[in-house]
Amino acid sequence: MNDFFEAFNIGSSEADFPGFTDETGDYAANTWPDTPGFEERVSTYFAEARRVAYTLQDAFADALGVDRDVFGAVSDHPINVLRMNNYALPPGSIELGADLTGMGEHTDYGMVTVLWADRVEGLQVLGRDGRWHDVMPAEGALLVNLGDIAARVTNDEWMSTLHRVKPPIVDGTIKRRRSAAFFHDWNADAVIRTLPAMLEHSEPVYEPVTVAEHVQAKLRGSRAGVKNTAAAREQARVEAAQVEAAQVEAAL
C-alpha cells in the first residue's frame, strides 16, 4: 500500500431524515473540528453536491427508460459521503524514487460521484481501450464518475469508472493536489438489482446485494489487508491494463 493522501469525511446521519431510525450504525453523527465556519461551509457544499447528484440520477433514470421514482425509492435515506482529499506530504518524508501512488486503482461504490478537483495533474481514468488517460477538469467544472451501483443496475452497460491518482512531481518535489468527492450511495438497506430491460439479451453479471453488504465487501480487503474477492471485475480490468501497458512499452 503506497497510497499517500489524507482525508476528512462527513456523511449522511440519522438526523438528516425525519422519521427514520438507524438500526445498523451506518448513519452515525459527524465529528467536526473546532474551526470557525468550517462546519457551515462544508455542510453547504454537501447539500449542493447532493442536489447535483440527485439531478444526475434523474437524468440516468430518463436515459434508461426508468421512472424516476424507482431510483428515488431506494435513495430517500442514502449513505452519502463527502471526502475531502489532500495529496501532499512534508518535504523529505518520502523517497521520490519509490513506487508512489496518490490513490490506487479503484471504482467508487455508489450510483454516481460528483468530484471537484483543483487543476493539478494526477487523476487518471481507465478507458475502454484498456489504457490510462490523464484527466484535467475544465476551469470551474465538476467531474462525474459512475459508480458500482450504476454498473450493477445496467449489467455493466454503464461501467463504473476505474480511476487512480498518480503523485504530481514537479521539479523533483510532489506538488499539492486537492479534491472533494461526493459519493451518492443509495440507502444502506436498498437491494441493488439489475434492471430487467438490461437482461433481455444478456446473462446477469451480478447477483442482487444490499448497499450495506456491497460497501462492507469492498471495504473488507483494504481494512483487513486481505484479498478483496468482491472486487474481481475491477481487478481484472486493472490487470488487463497492466498487460496493455507492458505491451506498449515493449513495442517502444
Give structural attributes:
5 helices; 29% helix; five-stranded antiparallel sheet; 252 residues; four-stranded antiparallel sheet; 21% strand; Jelly Rolls; alpha+beta
Describe what you observe in this structure.
The structure is a single chain. The chain has a single domain (6-251), classed as Jelly Rolls (Sandwich), CATH 2.60.120. It contains 5 helices and 13 strands. The two termini are 29 Å apart. The protein is 29% helix and 21% strand. A hairpin with a 2-residue loop joins strand 9 (169-170) and strand 10. The radius of gyration is 19 Å and the shape is globular. With 252 residues, the protein is of the alpha+beta class. It has helices spanning 38-64, 68-73, 148-153, 211-224, 232-251, and strands spanning 6-11, 81-87, 103-106, 112-117, 123-126, 132-134, 143-146, 163-165, 169-170, 173-174, 177-184, 191-192, 209-210. The model has no long low-confidence stretch (mean pLDDT 85).
